[in-house]
Structure formats: C-alpha cells, structure tokens
Amino acid sequence: MSLTNASPADAAKAAKSASLVLSTLSAAARNEALDAIHAGLTAARDDILAANARDLALAQAAAADGTLSQSLVARLDLSRKGKWEDMLKGILDVRDLDDPVGRVTLRTRLDDGLDLERVTCPIGVLLIIFEARPEVIANIAALAVKSGNAAILKGGKESTESFVAIATVISAALARSAVPNAAIQLVTTRDVIPQLLALDHDIDLVIPRGSNDLVRYIKNNTRIPVLGHADGLCAAYLDPSVDATLAAGVIFDSKTGYPAACNSLETLLVHEAALSTHLPTIATALAVKGVELRCDPQSKAALSDTPNLTLLDAVESDYTTEFLSLTLAIKTVSSVSEAITHINTFGSHHTDLILTGSTDQAEQFMSAVDSAGVMWNASTRFVDGTRYGFGTEVGISTNKIHSRGPVGLEGLMIYKYKVRGRGQVATSYGEGEGQKRYLHEKLALD
Amino acid sequence: MSLTNASPADAAKAAKSASLVLSTLSAAARNEALDAIHAGLTAARDDILAANARDLALAQAAAADGTLSQSLVARLDLSRKGKWEDMLKGILDVRDLDDPVGRVTLRTRLDDGLDLERVTCPIGVLLIIFEARPEVIANIAALAVKSGNAAILKGGKESTESFVAIATVISAALARSAVPNAAIQLVTTRDVIPQLLALDHDIDLVIPRGSNDLVRYIKNNTRIPVLGHADGLCAAYLDPSVDATLAAGVIFDSKTGYPAACNSLETLLVHEAALSTHLPTIATALAVKGVELRCDPQSKAALSDTPNLTLLDAVESDYTTEFLSLTLAIKTVSSVSEAITHINTFGSHHTDLILTGSTDQAEQFMSAVDSAGVMWNASTRFVDGTRYGFGTEVGISTNKIHSRGPVGLEGLMIYKYKVRGRGQVATSYGEGEGQKRYLHEKLALD
C-alpha cells in the first residue's frame, strides 16, 4: 500500500500497472501478503489506536458543536469492544476463503489439440469510496489482495489519522511481500472524488460503501461501472393464507431487527382479506418497539380497535420512502398481482418478501418480482453475504448486470478465455468441402 | 413486436412492463413464440423480399451518387444466396439452445427449512442499436424472446422498409403467442438514439452492433451498461522457439482470413532472435495476399533480402491503429515480458496471441496479458461465439465486468436470490448464547 499524494491520474495509472503484476501472483503469494498485513497490524496496535484516539477527539469536539453526528463518532471508534479483534480476524477469514483466481469454469475441446478454457481472473483496479469506519481499510485491502485486484481507497476525512496509521503498516507489510506497493493505495488528498470518477481508462469498478446519498452521487457522476445500491425500499406482501403469528414474527424482525439497514422492511402490502384476520396481530407485535404505522384508509380502519398503536394517515410518498427508522407504510391490495405490480413499479429492486401459505403463490411472486432478493416466509434481514454463507460481503448490488444481491469475492472477478492450439487456423474449419468440423466437446472442469 | 412511433420514453416504459411478463413465461411458451415467428416469416417471404428490394434500389442509387458504400449495399441485400435461409434457420437454432432462464447456479441450506437458491433470470430491457443488415432484426428478436428479455431495436435507416416488413410479421406472430407485443419494439422514428441512451431507468443494457464509431459513440454517451467493444487491436508475439512454418500459418490466417473483422491481427511483436530465423518465412507467406508490412528499423533490415514484400517504415501510431485491412505493423522486442507490457499498454484488451514452443512462456503470456482472449499457437480468428460452441453470439465484449469475450445467451442473463423459509427471523441466528448457528450446507444443484 502506498499513501499517495500523487495526482489521481498518476495513482490510477500506478494501480493499473500494479494490478497486472498482482493478477499473476499465486494464491500462496497473495495469502502470504495477508499474513504479513495481519502480523504488521498486530504489532502496531498501540500506534494505530493512538492515531484513532486523535481522530476521535476531533470528532467528539465536532459532535459537541453539532457539526458531526454521534453515530458517526461511534463508527469511528476502533477501541470499542471487539472491534480491533474483529478487524484482525477478518483478514485471516478472507485469507482462508477459497481462492477465486484461476478457477476454470468452462472447458471445451474445439478440435483435437485445440482446447478452449474460461478462467476466472481479477477485474483490475477497484476504486473504493467509503466513509468514516477505519476498519474498512484493512478489510478492503484484504479483499483486494485475495482477489488479485488493485484498489484505490478514498476514505472519509474524519478517520484520516487512523487511515494513515493503518496504511503505513500495510505498506510496510506489502513491501515484505510479492504484492506491488502500488496495488493498494490510500488517497488522502481532499476533494479528489470527481477526478477519480473520471478515470475510466484505468479504473474498472467503483464500490461505494456508505450512505445512499454517496452511492447516488457516484452512480450519477461516473462512466465506470458502480457496484452497489442507492436504495433499499423493501416491501412485504401479506396473504390471508399465511399463519398470522408466523407473519408477525417475520415482519417484526424485518422491520425492527436493524431499522437503518438497507434490507429492512419499509412497506407492507396487505391483502384486503387479511386486514381483520392478520393485521391486528402484526400491528400489536410492532407496537412493542413503538413502530409508527402509516396506513391507507382501509388498513387504518382495520386497526381502529387495536390498542397502543401509533397510527398515521399515509400519503403517497410514504410508499416510495426508505424510512430507515421505526416507521412502516401500510397499503391494502386486492391480489398478489396487485402487490407484484406495486413492488415492481415503486420498489428499489433490492429485497422483497411474500408471506403466504400457498406454494404456487410464493413461486409466482418470487418469479415475477424483479428484485435481487425474493423471500418467502423468511425475514428480509437474511439478505447479507455472511448470512448467505459467502464468507464476506463487498456490498449488496441492485445492478442488473454482473453481480446482484449480496456480493462476495466472486463479484470482484471476471474471466478470460484461453485457447491452446498446435498451429490450427480458422479457415480450415467450416461446413464446406474439405473443411474440418468443430468437435465442441465439453471437457470435465477438473 | 410493435412498430412504435411512441416517444422513446413511452417505448421504454412499455418494454419494461412487457419484460416483467416475458420473464415469467415458460421455456415452452417462449419457444412457441419462436416457432410462430419462423412460420410467419416463411409465409411472408415474398412481401419481405419485395420490401428489401425497395430499400436496395434506394441504396444502389445512393451508392451510384457516392453517398453510400458498396459494402453497405451488399449487407442490405436479403436476396443474396443463402441469406434468407440462414436467417430462418437462425431462429430455429436459437430455439433449440438450452434454456438460459431459471437455471439454479447455487443452492445452500442456511438452516433446516431455510434454503437459499441463486436462479438465472433475464436482465430486463435490451436496447439494440444496429446498422444496415436487415436479418439482424429477426436474429435479435429470437435471442431476446429465448432469453426472456424485452428488446428495443433501432436499425439503420437504409433498411427501413425491410425492417418494417419483418417487424410487421413478427408482431402478428407474437400476437398469437404468450409474449407481450411490446416485448419487442422497432423504433422507426429518426434521431432518437440520444433520447434512448438517456433512459437508464427502463433500459438495462445497450448492445451496439455495428462500426467501431457507433460503439464508441454509444459508450461515451450513456450511463446504461454497454456490452461490446470499440476496438479490436489484436497483437501476436513471435518467439524464436516456435516452428516457423506453424507461426507463418497462424499469422497468415489471423491477418488475412477476414481483415475487416475485430479478431484480425494488427500488430506483430517479433523477438529479436526470431528476426532472421522466422520473420522472412512469415513475410513471404503474407506477401501472397499482398499484405503491407510497416516495420521498425530492425525488422525492416531483417527483411531487406526477402523478395516481393511491400515494406514501409512504421510510425508510432501504427502500433495503436486497427487497420482492418491487409496491413500489419511489425515491432522488434527483446523478451516476452516486453511484448506483454506492449500489449497491456497499447492493446485493446480484445484478443492477443503468443507463438512459442515453450509451455511455461505461453502460460506466462496467457496469465499476464489482460485481454478477453489469449491464444497460444492458434489463430486469433477462432475468437467467435459460434466457433467457441456457444450456439450464437450477441457480440464480443472487452468489458471488465459481466461478460467478456464472445457473448452468447449467458451474457443476456443475470440472477436473483430466492430464500424459502418457514417463518425464520435473522435475530435468532448468531454467535450469542441461545442463538442458532447457520448450517451453510451446500446442496446439489439438481
């Protein structure tokens, strides 16, 4: 890793060159670099925490002035219980994942002595733009090295001292490894994001990790592909055929488990036949956490006799709002089809849920809803790379190409085709007289 | 298919709605639509060829004026031997490909009764922008229907009558099928490309089929992902360890098989030790077709005694020029590493070739060259979806995400994650006391 004050263009060019070396290193060489990073960080614990304390002091002063939020201050703090240990363990976890580089995913014999192979390889140069959390830098450096990608990191200014301390250690560790130093670069100069976003020749993929506003800004200001999601406007459809207690449990978890998360529930679409049979049970469950319900007239009427609820009249914009808080918009529908249309029209294509006792209806919903995740009688909160068993998560994507849903290491890979021959030429093959035919024989992958 | 004079925005919105229906149709329903298109076109042969003849007459007049190229006129002509039959056979070929929709590519048991599945599904709405060739419209309609994607087609104006005639037939055929009419739309209004390229909310992928200029224009003018390549600047590295006759055969085919193709050879990098031993044999082979050689001083000197060559002095720009003609730029290098660096710096990441007798060197080259296709002792001209055995080809991509190299139906697909549960909630799982652990058990794919 280098701490660069180079121009963004020079940093990107250096990262591209480094990526070409990194992409050819063996798994062992990349894993050794991860070990070196882990050892370096372990040894430098006190220095890094001291740097983090300086960031924290400045942030706390800013929070006292009201110019910084308390939640950001909390995210900054590397000395919080378990955070340092989690950061270090994360590096070893990434090291121990299956190697994503060089996997053969297709092998075809075109003719005797002429074989085609599709092999996974790194994408190239990643630009990771993130906000305050200082542990992200170690996490991303590990993912980049493991996947054979170079990375340019641009973090939020509140963590500058922490970032520089960690980057210095990583840089020294990489210097003892086969990974080129410029493969991981921390850009500390300010206001360079627009310049970085213009470097589509050398940067292959942008991964924003932060607020919806950050993601939306980036998506609107670059030609480089962006992996991520701006919105997580998740909806549930409630069918009368489902058990009311089951539905209440799933909705409670989806809404209240972590309301600020992108996979939290924001809209509940209730079948009219479930208004009196199911909705009161659900609303009562949500009331325990004080969830505010913004209802259309029908659902509000259905809840009029239920005690202890916070009921408001919904306005149209409530159905397109990602509340990220203990608020749920409720709307009555007359069929699963109407729910599907609502979700495909107003949703964010992130994660949507059906609560139903009918397999056919569930399959219809999961087929027709155009979202990265479709859940049947299970919480939307399961949508997460770790929970899905991917070992790690780069982010959750609502893109329609490349990677969708929780993205693990696989999302940082592309492939190339290798053809090994013995002098064969294309004009020898075809349907004409005297021409050879292709075999197109599928070969085992290993 | 509808022949739309709707605004681009309305056309895209209608395509999006139609795509949501199309994506849920069974393989049988999609294949039936392809049969109906095939039958409709077969029955309407005379009308379509008459319309094509009218386009052709106008084009021939324009060619006589010098305002249109003769090669474009040739590409327009549907009555050329075999072209009509190929177009019809292509529809049945696409029908008979394996269904790309609904393939399960990952299945994980998160817990008993809580299963995760990754299932392929269509991307959504494709915008296909192409030039004169009228048969492309039938080909693309077939690919879109087969893959469950809606498509908006914008063709070159020279083929308007042919397009309209074919679109009318396809429209009538789709009306007898389960595929919504708006799933395939031909936009015939003029100058709408900039408007279409702005519709990133409803259009998910742009596929330009045409000249490099067209592709470059599109890549520079849209936020929608573009699948394709602007340049095919393919290079070969010639090592002295390879058999000279083998090398001459492969280079001859790569350069002269179809010089206007994107997978044709443009640059030859010769190891200095092969200048006297190999280059004269190769140059003599190329001279049969009159290939013009643009040489650096060393390679020119090496060829000074070889008769019948067309030798020119290379200028720097020759090594970054896609000639698309019988011209080859030759440069001397002192190692395979220098060749790799040249290719990664000046190439187009499309297809590159190594001619060597050394397995180690070949593997080094194929690992380090950052291109969609890397060939060892086999012609660059093999890079093609049909030759690779993909059944069809949407185009060749130099993108670093999603699809790279020749793109078959697979490149028109994305996936979604389906989770089927029985009321499980995320807060029940974790490392804490009393919490359940995830199983993360890999299940068989079928």
Automatic annotation (TrEMBL), chains A, B:
It holds the Pfam family Aldedh. It catalyses: L-glutamate 5-semialdehyde + phosphate + NADP(+) = L-glutamyl 5-phosphate + NADPH + H(+). Keywords: Amino-acid biosynthesis, NADP, Oxidoreductase, Proline biosynthesis. PROSITE patterns: PROA (PS01223). One of its GO terms (molecular function) is NADP binding. Pathway: Amino-acid biosynthesis; L-proline biosynthesis; L-glutamate 5-semialdehyde from L-glutamate: step 2/2. This is glutamate-5-semialdehyde dehydrogenase. It comes from Dichotomopilus funicola. The lineage of its organism: Eukaryota, Fungi, Dikarya, Ascomycota, Pezizomycotina.
